[in-house]
Amino acid sequence: GAGVSQSPSNKVTEKGKDVELRCDPISGHTALYWYRQSLGQGLEFLIYFQGNSAPDKSGLPSDRFSAERTGGSVSTLTIQRTQQEDSAVYLCASSLQSGLPYFGPGTRLLVL
Amino acid sequence: EDQVTQSPEALRLQEGESSSLNCSYTVSGLRGLFWYRQDPGKGPEFLFTLYSAGEEKEKERLKATLTKKESFLHITAPKPEDSATYLCAVQAGGTSYGKLTFGQGTILTVHP
């Protein structure tokens, strides 16, 4: 595809449920990132994958958050036992090894 | 800890009224400073990367400059279509390339 794609575009869930958010990076991009944008807040780094290296998970806010990247391409961000404070826009970006990050449109998550 | 502060939080301009947005930063060894534009409901769109003090880049009505402590995004004769949130982010040396620290953004509204 031409750009980073994310699904679903919008997700409404109930408190305590698990959710999975998907990211398809730009073809050929070896690096993939997840960020979170809460209402009125700046983008907050969550996790970074680069090739076969161990991911940088230093931004994950709690052990309820996890992410994986299969086959060096598609990534899934999983939030377990969702809380209302998890409501935010989750943005994925990809880049060449040390290049400019290109962002997807985001998944808007609302936890009721 | 790396920090980015953008001002003003919101800026309202008349079409053709030039102005500047500010991004102040503290970072351990600047690897790069990024400007992004974000339209409502969309992911950030790349505008510029600046790497060293004194560097300037231009694109249409936008010009970005960088000093050792801050960056400015100058908007010359803005049009209503320039209305968006403008985000500034820094990439620190010694961290993974994917870890950007963002400011909270400046919401720009240009009235016809």
What is this structure, in a nutshell?
The complex is a heterodimer of chains A (112) and B (112). By secondary structure, chain A is mainly beta.
Structure description:
The complex is a heterodimer of chains A (112) and B (112). Chain A is mainly β and 112 residues long. Chain A contains no helices and ten strands. In chain A, strands 2, 4, 5, 8, 9 and 10 form a six-stranded mixed beta sheet that branches. A four-stranded antiparallel beta sheet of chain A has the order 1-3-7-6, with no helix packed on it. In chain A, strand 8 (88-95) and strand 9 (102-103) form a beta hairpin. Chain B is mainly beta. Chain B is 0% helix and 59% strand. Chain B is globular, with a radius of gyration of 14 Å. The mean pLDDT of chain B is 94. The chains are: A mainly beta (112), B mainly beta (112). Chain A binds chain B through residues 4, 31-33, 35, 40-45, 48-50, 56, 58-59, 91, 93, 95, 97-98, 100-106, and chain B through 4, 34, 36, 41-46, 49, 87, 89, 96-105.
Record the SSE blueprint:
The complex is a heterodimer of chains A (112) and B (112).
Chain A: E1 5-7, E2 10-13, E3 19-24, E4 31-37, E5 43-50, E6 65-69, E7 75-79, E8 88-95, E9 102-103, E10 107-111
Parallel strand pairs in A: 2-10
Antiparallel strand pairs in A: 1-3, 3-7, 4-5, 4-8, 6-7, 8-9, 8-10
Chain B: E1 3-7, E2 10-14, E3 19-26, E4 30-38, E5 45-50, E6 56-59, E7 62-66, E8 70-75, E9 84-92, E10 100-102, E11 106-111
Parallel strand pairs in B: 2-11
Antiparallel strand pairs in B: 1-3, 3-8, 4-5, 4-9, 6-7, 7-8, 9-10, 9-11
